[in-house]
Design a protein that fits this description.
It is a single chain. The chain has 335 residues and is of the alpha+beta class. The chain is 43% helix and 19% strand. It contains 13 helices and nine strands. Strands 1-4-5-9-8-7-6 form a seven-stranded mixed sheet, sandwiched between helices. The longest helix is centred in the N-terminal third of the chain and has 31 residues. The model has no long low-confidence stretch (mean pLDDT 92). The structure holds 3,4-dihydroxyphenylalanine. The site of 3,4-dihydroxyphenylalanine has 12 residues, from strand 8 and strand 9.
Length: 335
């Protein structure tokens, strides 16, 4: 058997080779244990030092400590390499490749239509007004001069909230008329786009939430002619010169006289109809002016409210309102 000192160098070389070749961190730990662990080959060698003569011992101990330090260093180096490798990508990165573009979506068709309607109204001096979707009885119904037996405020039709003051989700954007008139004097030329809510079951033409645009014009000597001219201008601007608009007498509590607006164009005919009802409108009722503190002997005005989905359906030839709310990308991608 070779002397203890002669065993040191080959053992070191074997250990260094094994550490340097460890394929992963587990193999490295295993190699470390087999040399430096409690029963490791170097540990055993150290113990045998006791058998050496007094003269030989210091030199042998020094050599072994030196080798141990070398092995520790080899271990640290290899561990750092393996750790780096475990987080680095397997293939090298090619920084000259073009970037991967993230697909960018676009505005929802209803938003696009709303923006176009707003743009048309801005051309003739209308500004956009906003109001809350959570409303109270007063702004949604009472101030709009409802008849006593009015059905819309029925809990069957309106979503009421469990709040102390029985707030509700507005059933129409007409509430914004009231809020604006209460907060500023005439003249007024506004539109108010936004969501409204009704307890309707969804079908091809109804959805429990949908969107309206309210219009309000208040000034001196305003006539039905102004109303009709404005409506015609907007729809021609939006949907082309072939648009025809017709007013039919109707009843709304907040206008007198009141009308429903029917709309016709080639797309409506393509959808199998001659006329499509798209809006309600009329001359602002004197009682509404009283309710907001305007003098009905001085001020006149008109108002309208129409459904944005209806207009989008006419524009794009869509026959089911639910498509706007299902968010199926195959539908949305087409706009
Ligand atoms: N608020 C009505 C509705 O939701 C629409 C409407 C009709 C609005 C006549 C008006 C109006 O401003 O004058 O059906």
């Amino acid at each position: 058997m070779p002397g203890l000192l002669d065993q040191i160098e080959p053992l070191k070389q074997a250990a260094v080779a094994e550490l340097a070749n460890a394929r992963d961190l587990a193999a490295l730990e295993h190699a470390k244990g087999s040399y430096l662990g409690p029963h490791g080959k170097f540990t055993v060698l150290m113990k045998q030092l006791a058998a050496l003569s007094k003269e030989e011992r210091p030199a042998a101990g020094k050599l072994i400590n030196q080798v141990k330090a070398e092995l520790e260093a080899a271990l640290v180096t290899r561990r750092a390499e393996l750790e780096l490798r475990s987080v680095a990508p397997e293939a090298p990165t090619d920084f000259t490749l073009p970037g991967r573009r993230r697909a960018i979506g676009h505005l929802h068709p209803l938003t696009q239509v709303t923006e176009d309607i707003v743009r048309s109204f801005r051309k003739i001096g209308f500004v956009v007004a906003d109001g809350p979707e959570i409303e109270d009885d007063c702004h949604c119904f009472d101030a709009l001069n409802p008849p006593a037996e009015h059905a819309a405020r029925d809990t069957k039709d309106t979503f009421y909230l469990k709040t102390a003051n029985r707030s509700l989700l507005r059933t129409h954007t007409s509430s914004v008329q009231i809020r604006v008139m209460k907060s500023q004097p005439p003249p007024i030329r506004l539109i108010a786009p936004g969501r409204v809510y009704r307890r309707d079951n969804a079908d091809a033409t109804h959805n429990p939430t949908f969107q309206q645009i309210e219009g309000l014009y208040v000034d001196k000597n305003v006539t039905v002619g102004d109303l009709k001219g404005t409506v015609e201008f907007i729809f021609r601007d939006l949907l082309g010169d072939e648009v025809k608009v017709r007013f039919r007498p109707h009843y709304f509590s907040y206008t007198e006289p009141s009308f429903e607006i029917d709309f016709s164009n080639p797309m409506v005919r393509k959808m199998g109809k001659e006329w499509l009802e798209i809006a309600g409108c009329g001359m602002v009722h004197p009682q509404v002016f009283e309710n907001v503190g305007y003098d009905p002997d001085v001020w006149t005005g008109w108002a309208f409210g129409f459904g944005i989905e209806r207009i989008a359906m006419i524009r794009y030839g869509i026959n089911d309102i639910r498509l706007f709310y299902e968010n199926d990308v195959r539908f949305l991608k087409q706009f």
